């Protein structure tokens, strides 16, 4: 396992966060997403498995590599907002899960994570150090 993979498992273990990202690749069944805040690349699968059958509101256009769902079209370098969490089928098989928040695709997108009032990006930072008092000696 890479150091980045270990970091992700520790950092996102009990968290679900919404972050800005950009599409860096379009495939038949997925979008490759880059999340600049964490320097991570992840896969957003556009096919969902229900009762063993794969369903998707998306259609793949191979002439212009894009995924289309109604009025929403994803191409390389498009902005997205994704929800990041850890998917754990077992303790040994944990991986990063990306889910689409924006743009909204009915029946596919997930609602944004509720933030508590006054919550900001400093919640993950260590507490500030206390100032040293000068000694008279």
UniProtKB/TrEMBL annotation:
Domain Exosome complex exonuclease RRP44 S1: 18-93
Name this polypeptide is given: Exosome complex exonuclease RRP44 S1 domain-containing protein
Pfam families recorded: Rrp44_S1
Biased composition (Basic and acidic residues): 119-128
Spans annotated as Disordered: 109-137
InterPro entries assigned to the protein according to its UniProt record, in alphabetical order: NA-bd_OB-fold (IPR012340), RRP44_S1 (IPR033770)
């Amino acid at each position: 396992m890479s150091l980045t993979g270990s970091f992700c498992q520790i950092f996102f273990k009990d968290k679900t966060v919404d972050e800005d990202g950009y599409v860096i690749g379009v495939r038949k069944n997925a979008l490759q997403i880059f999340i600049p805040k964490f320097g991570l690349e992840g896969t957003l699968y556009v096919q969902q498995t229900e009762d063993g059958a794969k369903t998707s509101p998306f259609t793949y256009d191979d002439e212009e590599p894009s995924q289309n769902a109604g009025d929403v079209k994803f191409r390389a370098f498009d902005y997205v907002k994704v929800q990041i969490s850890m998917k754990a089928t077992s303790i040994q098989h944990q991986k990063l899960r990306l889910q689409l928040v924006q743009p909204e695709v009915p029946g596919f997108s997930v609602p944004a994570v509720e933030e508590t009032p006054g919550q900001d990006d400093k919640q993950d930072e260590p507490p500030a150090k206390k100032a040293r008092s000068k000694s008279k000696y």
